[in-house]
Specification:
With about 150 residues, the protein is an alpha+beta fold. The protein is about 20% helix and about 35% strand. About 10% of the residues have low confidence.
């Protein structure tokens, strides 16, 4: 009888703890998704972009890895506000389907629009994220399997 009472008490405690966690997390929201390729147009003083107008963003929660041509930046997302730093830095805000901001200290303004993926195609997960999870990084080699293995 003591075993059943102990079991019932522990089960009740687990249910109360789970209900409390669900209630506490009810207000949590995932950050806005910025990952992908963006087309950048600048205004103001020139010379900020290195021979390309493509911005690639990899996102893990609010942390961002940005690649503007051969310039790598680290950044963060707070609500719709974006801040990135590296060889240059910029601050911006997500405005609908565009990112609007300013490069610092150059002062050039920019607008970036997301490049849509063709229908039916999906982006592969970045290799650095797969490696973090313990999965092997994707290979660029063609692999030939013997006939009848699939």
């Amino acid at each position: 009888m003591k075993t059943i009472a102990a079991y019932a008490t522990l089960l009740a405690l687990a249910l109360v703890a789970e209900a409390s966690l669900l209630r506490a997390g009810r207000g949590l929201r995932a950050p806005v998704s910025l990952g992908g390729t963006w087309e950048v147009r600048t205004g103001g003083s020139g010379g900020v972009l290195p021979n390309t107008q493509t911005l690639s963003i990899e996102q893990t929660g609010p942390d961002l890895d940005l690649h503007l041509g051969n310039v790598a930046l680290r950044g963060s997302l707070h609500g719709t506000a974006i801040r990135a730093w590296g060889a240059t830095s910029f601050s911006g805000r997500l405005d609908g389907d565009a990112i609007r901001g300013r490069f610092e200290p150059e002062g050039a303004t920019f607008v970036a629009a997301r490049v849509r993926e063709p229908r039916g195609e999906t982006r592969a997960a970045p290799a650095r994220h797969a490696a973090r999870a313990g999965a092997p990084a994707p290979s660029k080699r063609n692999i030939t399997l013997p006939e009848g293995t699939l």
